[in-house]
Amino acid sequence: MYKTLLRTLLSLLLCLPALLYAEGDKVTLRTSAPVGSQVALAVNDEAIISDALQLDHSGVNAVGNDCNWYKVIRQEVEITGSITKIEATSFRLASLQIEQAPDLDVFFSEERDRGKQTIQEADFSMCPNITKIGIQMAELKQIKLQGLAQLSLLGIGGNNLSALDVSGCDNLNVIFMHRNQIKEPEMGAFIASLPSRVDQSTGYIVVIDTYPSLTDEGNVCTAKQVRQARDKNWIIKTADNEEYPGSGYQQHISDETIRLTTTLTIGQGENYIPLGIEAYPDEDFEVEGGTYHSTANGRRYYLLESPNLVIRGKVRSLNCGGTYLTHLDISGNPELETLLCDDNKQLQSLVLGTPHKLKTLNTSDSPVGDIDFSLLPSLEYLYCRNSQVPPRSLASLTQLKELNCSGNAWSTLDLSQATQLEKLFAAGCGLLKVDLTHCPNLREVQVHVNYLRELPLASDKLYSVIAFDNEISGEQMTHLVESLPTFETGADPDAPEQAELIIFRTDNQPEADKNRCMTSDVQIATAKNWAVLSVDMDYNKSPYSGLQGDHISLCPTSAVSLYVTPEEVRIEGIPHGETITLYDLSGVIVYSLAASSGTAVISPDAIPSGIYYLSVGEEVLPLIIR
């Protein structure tokens, strides 16, 4: 009895490799290409193609970088091994059978003419980890996809599907399904099976081809179904990338208006103005003064008929950046939430009107001048770089999260009410003072190239401060580094791996950086896990070690200051026309320099290590070169 059981176990062990092989990956493809002809196929390196195909070296890489040409020996082709990719390009696929392929990630089949090499059905239920499927123009009648939780891209346009179920495809976000035969009630069932993308990125479905020369579009998606998809954060589109309102949709254009004037030439060739316009759900818009031509890069291109255009309808978002505007009036559409009118060099008039719902406003590089920010109580993102915008009503923006006002002539910046502010970009404004202690949510600060003598901070979320080319020194520099929070890598998913303080510019052009960050200040910052950096004129970053020691002078009232770093010896406050002379302890002159300005720089490499005295006029300063 015992020996019989032992022999049975031994027999099973001997058969185990064959059993494992039998249960391994296996996909069978059938081609309609005649025996002896060529087909193209791409698989991953670990997959094994049966001898039904013979590699034809004369065609290697003729279709794609990893796609080989094969001679057809038999029309039924088995693929085994560990299968992660199958791309049946120029294969003339006629049927597909997947027995097991748990690691298959990508399956693509080429498009083909109607009535040729049809595939009746495709079952991907044995591919739980597949992420991309493309079988288009195959007259496919059935496809099984339910439960494919990793699937993100599905391309099945140009088939004969009358139903589609994507339940359980929780990661799905792009679907091409136009030119099928899915109607009611099956279209409703498909919409119901869509995974919800609420609180995720928007999903997109190309559901219908409206191109007039095509007559084989059989899908019917109603306006109600479009709304149901939208409720799940899916956008329904046509094959030419236009949003599709749905079958039976009744157009509704409200009385709201936005008026624009452009200097684009009318009547001299075909001049198009690109406008990114988004209406509210179930609302439409029209443009007077231009005829719609096409859509590209998220904008609709209109052939101009007049320099004065009127956009009618309840518009939520308008992008008219770089359209040569001279006048823009949004007072007739107080529901507007996003306005991008940047890069209009002649736009000197922006009419707001009554209080708006604007959340995002970009006027950068458009000289719009005065904006009454009190009319924009909901504004969260303001980009007004080089816009000649005065800051007097900025304090009314209590919801502001991001501000870019670089290049404006603002001597002061009142952010006392901006408690939600996360990012501030205020470089090259001529700022004399800015108090950021009322901004506890700040993450990024850029205030370089100003005249600041202090920079008060009070945010424990900071990870980037750029403040070179200012006049911060002494106790105020120490207060700045002491106010930096201790940085912890990974604590904030939006933060980089390293916090950075860029505090000094090394090129001295057009004038020397007047910040004075001492070695002791650098040590305080680095102890909090901050990298202290300098930049050159090309914005190349380098570690900054700080100035050694304090202000050095034998005369407490002296205007001459000496700063020493491993990279340079800097003398400031030199009277006009004075000569700088360096003596060793025996009184021998070892270096002399005629200063052409109030600042002089000596390279330590030009002087041997030792103790020296530096003479500037009637003043003598000690200097140690290590």
Automatic annotation (TrEMBL):
GO terms for molecular function: signaling adaptor activity. It comes from the Bacteria. Residues 1-22 form the signal peptide. Keywords: Leucine-rich repeat, Repeat, Signal. PANTHER family: PROTEIN NUD1, PTHR47566. This is Uncharacterized protein.
